[in-house]
Design goal:
By secondary structure, the protein is of the alpha/beta class. 22% of the residues lie in helices and 35% in strands. It is built from 5 helices and 12 strands. The strands form 2 sheets. Strands 4-3-6-1-2-5 form a 6-stranded antiparallel beta sheet. Strands 10-9-8-7-11-12 form a 6-stranded parallel beta sheet, with helices on both faces. The structure holds flavin-adenine dinucleotide. Flavin-adenine dinucleotide binds next to strand 4, strand 5 and helix 1.
């Protein structure tokens, strides 16, 4: 773990809820991390807050994070008030939510809301950088269709990498939504689970427990399931 001074370089508002914040490293100039890990941003003297790397580890002169603006607290106020060029202090990298590369198992990723962030970094790293041939499936649950983003990027990845599949799941979907509706738990319940796969879950607290239970009842062993919590 190392301390970095970074500059706030840009932001991209996907919709009212989700925004991508882009940072450039100032001191030191490069960072070494693995997809699935997270940073801590120094918000004030007594508060450091965690955010997953959203960008691929291949980009080492800076990084991106994905922020859920619906969560209202001191960190969100701090991030909302950042001005381009502002200097921040962060420490990184943290966490063990990384892909086990010792085997070539199928990978099942399950996310809700901002929990997609570590998976997006992992997917870019596995498919684009490592040219992995492992079968990878992402299940991603959101409440409403107007919160849904990354669609074109994920669709393009699906097209370019036949080993990648993506299942968006919308809770409050309108009748014309033809894909999975309900929660990611509901979606997973109707799909066959490959008990030999490796399972990674970054979902809200309520769903994480239910999903783990679902996998365990489908003969998945506890050691095949990794869970990261974002609150
Ligand atoms: C390992 C880790 C990685 C994280 N990565 C991200 C990330 O990539 N992007 C991101 O936006 N946030 C992420 N978080 C959450 C983030 O660290 C903050 O908790 C969040 O930004 C709110 O901080 P705050 O100080 O503004 O409010 P707080 O005072 O910390 O939280 C306000 C209230 O909202 C609750 N809360 C916090 N987060 C959520 C949530 N996502 N959904 C529902 N309720 C919530 C808290 O429990 C609290 O009751 C991560 C947390 C952890 C532990």
């Amino acid at each position: 773990m190392q301390t970095f001074i970074v500059n706030f370089e840009d932001k991209f508002e996907y919709n009212d809820r989700f925004v991508k914040l882009i940072f450039e490293l100032k001191r030191p100039h490069t960072i070494d991390f693995q997809a699935g890990q997270y940073i801590k941003i120094k918000i004030n003297q007594s508060l450091e807050q965690e955010y997953f790397f959203f960008s691929s580890p291949t980009i080492d002169h800076g990084f991106e994070i994905l922020v859920d603006r619906y969560i209202k607290g001191p960190s969100m106020t701090y991030l909302e008030n950042l001005k381009l060029g502002d200097e921040l202090e962060i420490t990184a990298p943290y966490g063990e939510f990384m892909i086990d590369e010792d085997n070539q198992n199928e990978l099942i990723f399950v996310a809700t809301d901002v929990g997609v962030a570590p998976f997006y970094s992992m997917i870019l790293d596995l498919l684009q950088t490592k040219q992995s041939k492992r079968k990878i499936t992402l299940y991603w649950g959101l409440d409403n269709l107007d919160e849904f983003f990354l669609y074109q990027d994920l669709e393009l990845l699906e097209k370019n990498f036949p080993n990648f599949d993506f299942h968006p799941v919308i809770s409050n979907a309108l009748p014309q939504w033809t894909l999975c509706r309900g929660t990611v738990y509901d979606c997973l319940s109707i799909h066959e689970v490959n008990a030999d796969a490796s399972f990674y879950v970054c979902a809200n607290q309520e769903i994480s427990g239910k999903i783990k239970h679902l996998f365990l009842t489908n003969d998945v062993k506890e050691e095949q399931i990794k869970i990261a919590k974002y609150y």
